[in-house]
Amino acid sequence: MLSAKDGEKPRLSHICVAGAASGAAQVWVVCPLELIKIKLQMQTEVKRTSSSRYRGTIDCIRKIYKTSGSRGLFHGITPLLLRDTPGFVMYFASYEILLDLLSQRKSRADVGPLATVFAGGLAGMISWFSTFPFDVIKSRMQADGNNGIFQYRGAVDCFLKSYKTSGLRGLFSGLGPTLLRAFPTNAVIFSVYNFVSNLFIERSITLNADVD
Where are the Solcar repeats (predicted)? Predict the structure, then answer.
């Protein structure tokens, strides 16, 4: 079973499996939304009179579907899968490992707020750093063709051309601000998650005690 009793530490292997599954599953929802977001953000490069210009989210979806079908809405999904499947494993696994290093916990309730802040923030940074080149490739593929000219034939072609023009450093372009965003964002996510989880655990313990 991939579960642990209330309050107990989950097994690392279970966390990795759950992380990989959740990362791969959410990609199918995220990919079309990230594609539309990037297409709309790249509007400044498209002339106002161009037929490829989008008037909004719905118009963007309609035009992508009209020219490429439903498959077009999942353009860039390969690097996104390569980013998020291992990325979610790194995210949740590193969080649990860091919690063990930063606190002497025997259960979830033993974790202090400061340990949660640092473990959550660092886990977010580790996750992004470990898979960032795939995010760069994904973004370049999804932005490709916005001016009517396509540069890349696929994920591998995008990687080879990016590496040829910018080297390894180019595959980490934008990493700095991403890491600066990752720490506070994920520190807040895990802090709130643990706080609410502990409230439910305490409530469950109290209710069980009242029943006994």
Answer: 10-101, 111-199
